Amino acid sequence: MAATTTVEREHERQHDPGVAAAPARPRGRRPAWLVLQRAVQYALMVLLALFCVVPFAWVALTAVDADGGSTVQVPAFSLGNFVRFFTDGDTPRLFLNSVVVSFAATALNLACGVFGAYALSRYRFRGRTTFMFAILLIRVIPPPATIVALYLLMVKLQLDDSYLGLILAEAAAALPITLWLLKGTIDAVPYELEEAAWLDGCTRFGAIRRVVLPLVGPGLGAAAILTFMAVWGDFLTPLVLLQSPDLYPLSIGMFRAFTAFNQVDWGVLAASALVYMAPPALLYIFLRRHLMRSSIGGALKG
Amino acid sequence: MQRPGTPRAKARRTGTGGRGALPLLLGPSVVLIAVFVIAPAGYGIYLALTDTQLTGFAARDPHFVGLENFRNLLGSEDFLASLGRTGEFVLWSAIIGQTVLGMLAALLLRQKWLRGKGLFGTLVLLPMVVPEVVASLTWASVLSSNGDGTLNRLLSLFGSGAAAPLQDSPMVSVVVINVWRGIAFAMIMFQAALEDVPDELIEAARMDGANALQVFRHVTLPLIRGPVFLYLLLTTITTVGVFGLVYFLTQGGPGQRTELTSIYIFQHAFRDSQIGLGSAASVILLVLLMLLGLTYARLAKVEV
Amino acid sequence: MRRNRVLSATAAGALLVGALTACSSDSGKDGPVTIKLVEYQKPRIAVVKKLIPQFEKAMAKQGRHVKVELVADTLTDDQFRTKITQQLHSGTAPDVIDMGGSNVTGMAGAGYLLKLDDYLDKWHGWDQYYAPAKAAARQPDGSYYSLPHEASVQSLFYRKDVLKRLGVDTSQPRTWDELIGRLKKIRAKTGGAPIVIPGGTAWGAGSWTEGFLPVMAGTGSTFYDAESRKWKLKSKGLTATFGLYHDLIKDRLLPVRDLQNPNPWEPTKYKKFPKGTLPVSAQGSWGWKYDWGPDGSAPIKDVRKKVGTWDYPALVPGTKPHSISGGGFGYSVNAHASDPDAAVELAKWLSSGKPLAKQLVAVGAVAPRKDLAGVAPYKNEPSLLEAQRKLKSCVQPPLGDGEDQVSQAVQSATAKMLSGKADGGQAAADFAKEAKELLGSTRVAK
């Protein structure tokens, strides 16, 4: 599979591939039909885009509404909801918990993943292919199928209801993808470069640091973003593993707030939603250009 | 510089740093995966064969009950219904909804003359990148049974009365939400796949007088079969594992009409403390997924 | 270099985690004894918060240095039950737990709770308890694992004013047929479902304790045989009870849609009943304060004038109208509490005299002991005193190991009726089948 193209690359293409290509026919041949076709396609594009974005209207409008309700209305502009979110009661703690858990899990995941992927890429050992295959198979397991046993296991290890337990579980869950991704990226780094470094007197680890790591930057970035997004947005694992309210991340906090029914503060809830969705949305949108091209492609090829 | 493959380079490969480094490098990953991913899977199988509970005398003294939990489940209307619902959910949202709309989006993005593709792409991405709790929340407002919920406002434009979709057609509602969420992933996968369709073939077909639909069916589609099947497999797996998106909004309700198997497992294991039963349900789910995966692999091989 | 950055990020993360974990763990063990008490309902939290300093003072007078930490987390019954089960299972639960009696059987069975028999035998307070209250707290193995500090009476609450306005008879209905006739009349006039009885899975354990059980307990059929320790899953009473649900659903007297949605008590008890559009509700005596009192979840003005109570009418021929002694909350002690004596002291103190009176009034509970009638502020609550008088003649609901499983089976059987998938007979059969599977054949009578 070729690397995913970015929207920008389209403009560089000379040919016009795809369904409704404008063929090299004599001009003037059925232009009305063509115009209709294009109009339809524009309409489809607009409809699809609207479908995707309209639900967010409530979040955006109610978050800045002084008396937000559960439906879309013209807001009475105020940033009070955000202020309350960051200062009032338990909500700042929710945000802090999400940040701590996500960053720690991502860091742990990357640390283990980059070295593990290096080993998988450079060492030929018995069972390597089995290991890679097993990792792929793990990807098939949906979280709800293992959560029950995971909970009991965590209790036995006395890691339930703790930061550490959640972080370890999240980091481990994201490892298969990270390992696959990074292995593909490291595969693409020519071995000769490392050898050259050794010839220059580097140790193996030194060579990794000087040669390999800088070149897998985009791969690391992609793995970091994927892991961060998965952990940041996770709902089921913290729901099951955590019982203390002061450990709840934003996902659980918002759930408790939403199901409190009578006493829902919609404005603050919308503000929390906005805050909660900002990091992954921004990360992904700004960085996908740099990352999608090289690393995902590399991983998909691998 | 030495070329790889020459004796000196070969010696180097297994030399400096040596294989001693392997456990150190790969060790932590293996330990993490073994303890937090593989062990639960195995432990789950063990638990499925016991009558473990969290309350009652069985909590103190769990017994090995063999296949009894499985027998209960396979004879349980509730469980089988949840499997049916999960199948419905996967079929309509993943296999049909996301695929069709995702393909549409990918095709649209390939039109050179279409303006605003950058913005379009970003907007379609938004539902995928936000946390699932936020996704549910946005749709809670859209589907609100209030007169001025977004959907109801739209319906009133068409002259229709207010609807309560989460009450009356909960399954349809969650299917739509999941489709909304998954379009971007399909779009990305298909974009990559469509790259591999050589323009010359398309041109040639056009020259021969084929219209757009025929080109798609006979030229494009056969060439992207492999990636499409891979995509279908991935999205089926992900969709079977959907929990928060639905639970946040309905908690399986109204009644049990949106109780997917993932929610069934959660309710029985944690709300009702039936650990053994919940584990057995998890095992059955996994087995079904394995079978599905094999079926996909078989189908993909035949075509590609 | 990147590797260093990764390392330092991990280290920083670890430090931060460590710091925060230390911050959230409880205070040191040396020095005063700290007992953790958990409350999960707002009115209880409010009243207990004020009582704690008094307890600590009382302990100090005895020369004991005891500190009480209140763990306050507002949750629904089912959410709390899930959470406390997990905490007890993992050994991280608080020392003293205030919860409903329906939770106690399962947790005692699992070995999570401290046996209180020795403490209670030595306590004069215990002699003041009514026999039904004690019986309700005694577990199948004959011991006590909770110190009840409430009792309640389960009846049918109804809007006197609304019924009078609609011209419906407000006297005690003698049979369900009679009541159904009146309900149909109300429905004809209002167009909406006139009665709410908990049922289905959305109401959770309440479907069992507040919905099904009170009706079933008055039918005269044995449900749980304490001698053989087995449940009788098929009986006339059970068939009649399921049949009653079915009749109510068939005649559209129950708010089916509301019962199927999460938090079904909100639209029914907290919106429609106060509004008067749903004028009859199965309810425990705490409703006077906890639900509809001036500080309750959905206050009704002049509630004593507008609301009256009926006993449950007779369902099966040969029985009489009855009210059920519902449980109330009780203080249980974690079997692994670090200082069980201090924990039990707290439980005893909170279950006596003025502290108890204050809690009873805050929540609308009935005193389980004889000596509260003269204690302020309890003595100023006529509705509660009246309910207390009824206590002596109440029917006892059955209590047995496996109650949780029976509760579950009841919830799904009634849920099936709500969604129209089963009638009374089928629901009774489904219930028997599922309960048998969940209980295991050793706990089911032939």
Features:
heterotrimer, A: 302 residues, mainly alpha, MetI-like fold, disordered N terminus, disordered C terminus, C: alpha/beta, five-stranded mixed sheet, 18 helices
| Main sheet: strands, sense, barrel of chain C | 5 strands, mixed
Largest interface: A-B, 110 and 119 residues
**N-to-C SSE series of chain C?**
HEHEHEHHHEEHHEHEEHHHEHEEEHHHHH
CATH architecture of the largest domain in chain A: Orthogonal Bundle
Instruction: Give Rg of chain C in angstroms.
Output: 23 Å
Beta-strand content estimate of chain A: under 5%
Q: Structural class of the secondary structure composition of chain A?
A: mainly alpha
Mean pLDDT of chain C: 87
Q: Helical percent range of chain C?
A: 40-55%
Mean pLDDT of chain A: 81
The CATH C-level name of the largest domain in chain A is Mainly Alpha
* Number of discrete helical segments of chain C: 18
List the total number of helices of chain A: 13
- Placed side by side, the strands forming the largest sheet of chain C appear as 2-1-3-12-4
How is the quaternary structure best described?
Answer: heterotrimer
The CATH topology assignment of the largest domain in chain A is MetI-like fold
CATH-assigned homologous superfamily of the largest domain in chain A: MetI-like
Largest sheet of chain A: none
Count of individual beta strands of chain A: 0
What does this structure look like?
The complex is a heterotrimer of chains A (302), B (304) and C (446). Chain A has 13 helices and no strands. By secondary structure, chain A is mainly α. In chain A, 49% of the residues are buried. The N terminus and C terminus of chain A are likely disordered. Chain B is mainly α. The two termini of chain B are 42 Å apart. The radius of gyration of chain B is 25 Å and the shape is globular. The N and C termini of chain C lie far apart (74 Å). About 2% of the residues of chain C have low confidence. At the A-B interface, helix 1, helix 2, helix 4, helix 6 and helix 7 of A face helix 1, helix 2, helix 5, helix 6 and helix 7 of B.
